[in-house]
Amino acid sequence: MDTVADAWTNFFVAMAGATAALSGLLIVAMSVNIRQLLASPSLPARAGAAISAVAGALVASCLMLVPAQPRWAFGIEVLAIAAVLWLIWRAVPAEVRADPQPNRPAATRYGVPAVAPALFTVSGVLLIVSLDAGYGVLAAACLIAIAAGLLFAWIALVEVLR
Question: Are 82 and 59 in contact (CB under 8 A)?
């Protein structure tokens, strides 16, 4: 039995509930202003990145709760989630280059959307090599995914109407 994983159970139970609720909020936020979102050259890709990051946190949190799963197997699952997030992130830069605010720092246009996939990747590797820090890095990845999702929910509900 992995006692370190057991210590993280309550956190990931809460994370699964929070990310499930946020996923619903993001879908509603996108559907309310779908015309404005689709009219933007960059927002559809950002929407995809935001919802996929939150969905990645949801799936990782649920997989963490699978009983008696070896740590290395969970690490492979987290790496699979990271791979999907990286594939979706690759779609963002082409769209964001058409950003109506080209003088924004490049880090906010390219780097910030990559933080969650990067942390999922690091977490997966740490878990595969059986390092306890993998759980903490995964927790950070999930929290950053939630922050990104909330930020995009604000954009989808309020900023597109300005």
Answer: no
- What does the pLDDT look like over 71-124, one tens digit per residue? 999 999 999 999 999 988 877 655 454 555 556 555 555 556 678 999 999 999
The tally of domains found in the chain comes to 1
135 DSSP assignment: H
CA distance linking residue 101 with residue 23, whole number of Å: 27
Q: Residues in the chain, how many?
A: 162
Q: Got the DSSP string for 4-67?
A: HHHHHHHHHHHHHHHHHHHHHHHHHHHHHTHHHHHHSSSHHHHHHHHHHHHHHHHHHHHHHTST
Contact 128, 82 (CB under 8 A): no
pTM of the shown model? 0.86
CB 36 within 8 A of CB 162: no
Question: Residues 50, 95: contact at Cβ < 8 Å?
Answer: no
Q: Cα–Cα distance between 116 and 146 in angstroms, integer? A: 10
Token look-up 């740590």 returns 71
> Which residue range is the domain that position 32 belongs to?
3-161
